[in-house]
């Protein structure tokens, strides 16, 4: 693990409420597993409140860049972009891009890594084939597509809109169909005590999660 990753996680610029979530999310392990490097350009899909945006920004450093791809429905809410815009102002290498959907996004350059955490199950409720094809085209040859989400083994796509989880096998199949190769998977966020019968908000403990690193052929 690069020292720059740990420095990003330990940064005093991160808010206390983010740091309180670190034990459950293991960001230093996840960022290292995803293959984030100093100087990378990253497209972060649905960054929410910016938990990972801050870490990724400081990990790639001033020579890198993070495109924070925010869904339009956030932009249409009063104050919906306030937090992510404040992060972009604080960190000079973050650019907010408002998108109608994760299927026809346009970026000014190809990126080294497309990143999504705990959102893929939502994308799967739309045209996931188009979304994954966009991720493939957005990446440079040899680029990484990183996917982490709440697991619902053996359910296919049945739990995506009800329990806000997805079957890891379905993700592997869908992403492979877009031309990616599964390079590695991590069990750092696995929780065998999770019964997979409730949504993340209803489940009292830390959910069972999977993390995949896919590679676009070089």
UniProtKB/TrEMBL annotation:
InterPro entries: S-AdoMet-dep_MeTrfase_Alr7345, SAM-dependent_MTases_sf
Signal peptide bounds: none
Keywords for the protein's UniProt record, in alphabetical order: Methyltransferase, Transferase
GO molecular function: methyltransferase activity
Coiled coil: none
Keyword hit for Endoplasmic reticulum: no
GO biological process: methylation
Protein name: Methyltransferase
């Amino acid at each position: 693990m690069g020292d720059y990753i740990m420095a990003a996680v330990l940064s005093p610029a991160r808010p206390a409420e983010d740091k309180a979530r670190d034990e459950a999310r293991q960001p230093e392990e996840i960022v290292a597993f995803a293959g984030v490097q100093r100087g990378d350009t990253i497209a972060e899909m649905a960054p929410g409140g910016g938990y990972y945006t801050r870490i990724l920004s400081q990990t790639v450093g001033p020579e890198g860049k993070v495109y924070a791809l925010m869904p339009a429905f956030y932009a249409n809410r009063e104050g919906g972009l306030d937090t992510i815009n404040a992060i972009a102002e604080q960190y000079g290498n973050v650019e907010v891009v408002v998108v109608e959907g994760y299927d026809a996004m346009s970026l000014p350059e190809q990126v080294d890594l497309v990143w999504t955490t705990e959102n893929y199950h939502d994308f799967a409720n739309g045209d996931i084939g188009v979304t994954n094809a966009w991720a493939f085209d957005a990446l440079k040859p040899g680029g990484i597509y990183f996917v982490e989400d709440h697991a619902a083994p053996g359910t296919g796509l049945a739990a995506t809109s009800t329990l806000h989880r997805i079957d890891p096998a379905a993700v592997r199949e869908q992403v492979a169909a877009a031309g990616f190769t599964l390079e590695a998977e991590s069990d750092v966020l696995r929780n065998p005590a999770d019964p997979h019968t409730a949504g993340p908000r209803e489940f009292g403990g830390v959910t069972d999660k999977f993390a995949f690193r896919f590679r676009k052929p070089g």
